[in-house]
Amino acid sequence: MNAGNARLNFFASPTVGKISKTFMSVGMGLKASALPAATQELVALRVSQINGCAVCIDMHVKEAVALGETAVRLNLVAAWREAGSLFTDAERAALALAEEGTRVADAAGGVSDETWEYAAKHYDEEQLTALVILVSFMNTVNRLNVITQQPLADYRAGQLDRMAAAAGEESA
């Protein structure tokens, strides 16, 4: 990512303006899902680490801290396999699915049956649905930010929720 201006100004784009409410509603729908909020932030962070999206890493670390996550756990998300019992079995299953779902080009079959079964052991169908959509959503957002070299901003926890709420009020 560059430290200066982005290649595209999403905030000034009529195209982005037309789709941003729909896109934000996906994120808000995920937040309202049965998938635990802390798990969502850990997954979003791990996907963003893999994709090298500094904007999203910054955002999801701050959101996770606001939920009460510790610095130790956040610092070890990238090495969750080696972190012993620091992460629950359910979190480990979600992180495994997130990694395989993000690295589909590296794993000829996508998410392995073993990883899927491990996740299904810890999450019901609605939570698995949210997890799959979250991984896909984060990969999309990461790519938008990385391709256009969106610079790091002064993100504050809850800022995206406030923006989405304001967008919803505008459309009402």
What does this protein look like?
The chain is mostly helical and 172 residues long. Helices cover 65% and strands 0% of the residues. It contains eight helices and no strands. Helix 1 packs across helix 8, helix 5 packs antiparallel against helix 6 and helix 5 crosses helix 7. It is globular, with a radius of gyration of 16 Å.
Task: Show unreliable segments.
Answer: none
Q: Give the termini separation.
A: 36 Å
Beta strands, count:
0
Mean pLDDT: 89
Radius of gyration based on Cα positions: 16 Å
Helix and strand pattern: HHHHHHHH
Strand content: under 5%
Number of helices: 8
Query: What best-fitting shape do the alpha-carbon axes yield?
Result: globular
Please bin the fraction of helical residues: 55-70%
